[in-house]
Amino acid sequence: MCLVNFNFQQHSKYKLIVVANRDEEYGRPTQAAHFWEDEPNLLAGRDLLQKGTWLGISKNGRFAALTNYRDPSEPPRPFSRGDLVRNFLTIDQTAASYISELRQKRELYGGYNLIVGNGEELIHYNNVLDETNIITPGAHSVSNASLNSPWPKVTKGRTRLQKYIDTHPEEVQIEELFSFLLDREQAPDAELPSTGVGIEMERNLSSLFIQIPDYGTRSSTVVLIDQQNNVTFVERTYIEGEFDSEKQFSFQV
User: Fold this and answer.
1) Which residues, 6 or more positions from 50, have their beta carbon under 8 angstroms from its beta carbon?
2) pLDDT at residue 174, rounded to an integer
3) Burial classification of residue 13, based on how many CB atoms lie within 10 Å of its CB (0-12 exposed, 13-18 middle, 19 or more buried)
4) pLDDT band for position 105 (50/70/90)?
5) How far apart (Å, rounded) are the C-alpha atoms in residues 205 and 147?
6) Average pLDDT over every residue of 145-168
7) Sheet-wide strand order for 112-117
8) Is the pLDDT of residue 1 over 90?
9) Which of 89, 115, 134, 207 stands 20 to 30 A from 148 (CA)?
10) Residue 85's closest CA among 49, 134, 111, 46?
11) CB count in 10 Å sphere of residue 92
12) Of 213, 221, 224, which Cα lies nearest the Cα of 67?
């Protein structure tokens, strides 16, 4: 149940600022961010079970991020959602064309939100709602409903990022961006969505950083693309809520 906050084409120095958490079962095997041996232009963490990923960027500046759509009644689907990010990052196809193709086979995947593009253009697609959004300048957030849905964690993430951008017009500090993602405060019951998982789980999943038995935030990622197309990618990994490691990458598109 991930959270992706991002600011697009609003900052004087950065075309794109991404501040994201990946939440997953603690026991699911995962490899930290790296340039993949079988796809050397792709920088991302990797789900070792299905071999896909949830967020990544390519050496030519293509960016993609994925969250699941929360619906416990959804039947199994034949294909892995993690392939959606990998595929976009490794092909030469416009974001609009890629989304158009996905719409034709949207029922083959479990519910998802997908953000694809680069520093010049971003598109969001939700396959459950068959909803496409051209991303406009400003701060946005997506978790497990749709883009900028009124969930407490989505509103909090989006509002905090926008406020930070407004008060830091010249430069951003990676450490301060990561600090947003460590918030473990749960939302009041009256503000929680009802997604079919029960009130206790709704509470547990309402914080930006999640830590419950067997499940929680496994990694946090900050991605920056500046006006000169310099990319900074920093990932921090966690083990049962405790910091484990950090990886940093920098390159120019």
Assistant:
1) 80, 82, 83
2) 98
3) middle
4) very high
5) 17
6) 98
7) 30-35, 42-47, 55-58, 63-68, 112-117, 122-126, 131-134
8) no
9) 89
10) 46
11) 6
12) 221
